[in-house]
Design a protein that fits this description.
This protein has about 300 residues and is of the alpha/beta class. It has a single domain, classed as Metallo-beta-lactamase, Chain A (4-Layer Sandwich). It has eight helices and 14 strands. It has a seven-stranded mixed β-sheet with strand order 6-5-4-3-2-1-14. Strand 3, helix 2 and strand 4 form a beta-alpha-beta unit.
């Protein structure tokens, strides 16, 4: 199994267009790496590829990776697309894929309903794009030699669907993790998760790879930095550090590689020089970055 991290950043990327925080300024000057918004590509043979989450930065991401280039006058190795929730940073890139390219679009029924309710997504011509509704905990062929299974993880509805009362621990079709299996290897992609319950540890035990939500280092990070008014948990993301954080929550799970993805511009993990990056490394975590390739 091959995995390309096309974008390791959370919504807005790094630098975020209107943010003058330390990390964004450092990324603008090249002191630390920039990050585009969350997306990966996976393959079992290096020829046929599936995209998981379609970020607003998708066009530029595809242009940087030769395995995803067109194979002739028109077309590419991209055969299917899967979205894990309805967040803007995971579905806006679908509009980039409206150029008469045939592919299957996989999502839960709830997320397909969100897409169907927005007429802008009719730009994806149904003559080319087949929308496939996938039930939770049902194994399906994401590619001919690569199987996937969607499962609910704690989360919330997309920001644009929030009402007056917001639950961030919902278990259902709105926020899912992805289990990937190919050639005897098993990996997980979970870019959004509000809690790390014991059953999740049991589920991923023994996997060759875990790519997990690393949005914020600390729950109050954006508030303390003066960048926002919400905690990480209110945004539907478990913090990396602190009580209930993911840094040590997976210590008892036997895992091959564990990699943080979907990191916010405020997160010190985006700075390879930071003490937090060193601490994560000492705890067995790699920090995802744009262009990272993992071969299992």
């Amino acid at each position: 199994m091959r995995v390309l991290i096309l974008g390791a950043g959370a919504g807005g990327g790094l630098p975020q267009w209107n943010c003058g925080c330390r990390n964004c300024n450092a990324a603008r000057t090249g002191e630390i790496p920039s990050m585009t918004q969350s997306s990966i590509a996976v393959s079992a043979d290096g020829e046929a590829w599936a995209l998981i989450n379609a970020s607003p930065d998708l066009r530029g991401q595809l242009a940087l990776h030769a395995p995803l280039y067109p194979k002739g006058l028109r077309g590419s190795g991209l055969h299917s697309v899967l979205v894990t929730n309805g967040d803007i940073d995971h579905v806006a890139g679908l509009l980039t894929l409206r150029e008469s390219q045939a592919f299957d679009l996989f999502a839960t029924p709830a997320i397909h309903d969100v897409l169907a309710a927005n007429p802008v997504f009719t730009a994806m011509n149904p003559e080319f794009v087949t929308r496939k509704r996938i039930a939770l905990d049902h194994e399906f062929a994401l590619l001919p030699d690569l199987s996937a299974r969607l499962f609910a993880v704690p989360g919330k509805v997309p920001l644009y669907l929030e009402g007056e009362s917001v639950r961030t621990d919902l278990l259902g079709e709105n926020t899912v993790g992805v289990e990937l299996t190919a050639n005897g290897r098993r990996g997980y992609y979970i870019p959004g998760c509000a809690l790390v319950p014991d059953w999740l540890l049991d589920r991923i035990h023994g996997a060759d790879l875990l790519m997990f939500d690393g949005t914020l280092w600390s729950d109050n990070e954006m508030i303390e930095a003066g960048l926002g008014k919400k905690t990480g948990r209110r945004m539907g993301h478990a913090p990396v550090s602190g009580e209930g954080g993911s840094l040590n929550a997976f210590d008892e799970a036997a895992l091959g590689r564990r990699i943080y993805v979907h990191m916010n511009n405020s997160n010190p993990l985006t700075d390879p020089r930071s003490a937090q990056t060193a601490l994560a490394g000492a705890s067995g975590w790699d920090i995802g970055h744009d262009g990272m390739e993992i071969t299992l």
